[in-house]
Amino acid sequence: MDFHLTDDQKDLQARARELARGSFEERAAEIDRTEQYPWHNVEDLKNGGFMGMTIPKEYGGQGRTFLDAALVIEQMAQVCGVTGRIVVESNMGAISTVMKYGTEKQKKMAAAFVLDGDKPAICITEPEAGSAATDMTTRADKKGGKYILNGKKHWITGAGASRLHLVFARVFDEAGEEQGIGGFLGVREETPGLSIGNREPTMGLRGIPEAEVIMQDMEVSEDALVMPPRGLRKGFADLMDAYNSQRVGAGTMALGIAQGAYEHALAYVKEREQFGRPIYEFQGLQWMLADMAIQIDCAQLMLYRASANAGSGFPDATEAAKAKVVAADMALKVTNDALQLFGAAGYSRRSPMERFCRDGRMFSIGGGTAQILRTVVASRILNRKLPQTRDGFTKLAEREATMAREAAE
Ligand SMILES: Cc1cc2nc3c(=O)[nH]c(=O)nc-3n(C[C@H](O)[C@H](O)[C@H](O)COP(=O)(O)OP(=O)(O)OC[C@H]3O[C@@H](n4cnc5c(N)ncnc54)[C@H](O)[C@@H]3O)c2cc1C
Fold this sequence. Notes:
Layout: H1 7-34, H2 39-47, H3 66-79, H4 81-89, H5 94-101, H6 104-115, E1 121-123, E2 139-143, E3 146-157, E4 164-172, E5 178-187, E6 194-199, E7 210-221, E8 225-226, H7 235-271, E9 273-274, E10 277-278, H8 283-308, H9 317-341, H10 344-347, H11 353-359, H12 370-382, H13 392-408
Parallel strand pairs: 1-4, 2-4
Antiparallel strand pairs: 2-3, 3-7, 4-5, 5-8, 6-7, 9-10
This protein binds flavin-adenine dinucleotide (FAD).
């Protein structure tokens, strides 16, 4: 696979870097301290053409690829994780789901929101359904030409700042028969019954809210349902296919944060002297730096591969899972080691090192934990869907025995 960037990609990367190294780097500590959503940065991202880059040209976007978006995310996250996250969610996840699966009307609406500076929220997780996402209880009941949604989501990134929401729910027809899982579009301050609940006090990425999203008799017309290509029965699988773009985006944020921390550490070891010499002369520290560089490269290659291989579709589930696992583990190690190289200065809130550590912590949790993503990879290696419930393997064994019996008859 060839990752020589085109002139256009180099230009995009350079423009992103210029913006990031200008005002975004300056504002990053303040965003973290005040825990305020960075509307200034959103305006700059919008003016720079970094919101909705992946939206097709016919809907007002630039028709850029996920690899293009990854190049921008990396630059932003090197200086400000929160801004990196806004770029992820305005080019991947919910917006790419709608642009791929949505109707004309849905695509036009979603594109207009994002190009105007909105970062849509993707609402899957519930208090009792985290890793076991298909245990969600949020339901959408069909009534005439409408759906009525009831339920509660939590840990929704951007809740309270985002306008457009893609809400995953179990769908029931008029007779009360369950049809499967679908995604519904709702707009904060427009859709009746959609409201924002409590905000979590988070460890890192503090400038972007993580909050509850509550659907209480949330009423939408039937055309708010984003119909997955294989219908509602396979709805969750198709929606998660689309979600692989967000996983690659999250991994790329982890990469950028680690690169940012590494860059600071590399500069510091050249200027800090102890025992009458710069500390980079100690071989123990040279090997730490070498390990960081190796791990960063490894994650970058895997993330670029997953993005590039998406073509005009979504990243492959296994490539996305592998890349996110590697990037998340790498970010934990690299940000921690980078802080170590600063000694006490890294532990102070005057330096950005502790922020890099806090911001880099979430990637083995949010968007599929490190354990669940390893299960995704194992599933591919073993070539079977691996049930996680207590009776799941018994049922699988019974099903396989029946299939073998039928095949033999
Ligand atoms: C910063 C942040 C942002 C987020 N943003 C969003 C968002 O925008 N939208 C959204 O819908 N959700 C979001 N989430 C939620 C996130 O997707 C969930 O936290 C995640 O899916 C895990 O669910 P949980 O926290 O309930 O953990 P649990 O599922 O309760 O897991 C607890 C522990 O058990 C492990 N575990 C669980 N099941 C298994 C298993 N079968 N095998 C092995 N280990 C297992 C997990 O890996 C974990 O270590 C976000 C979370 C964070 C931290």
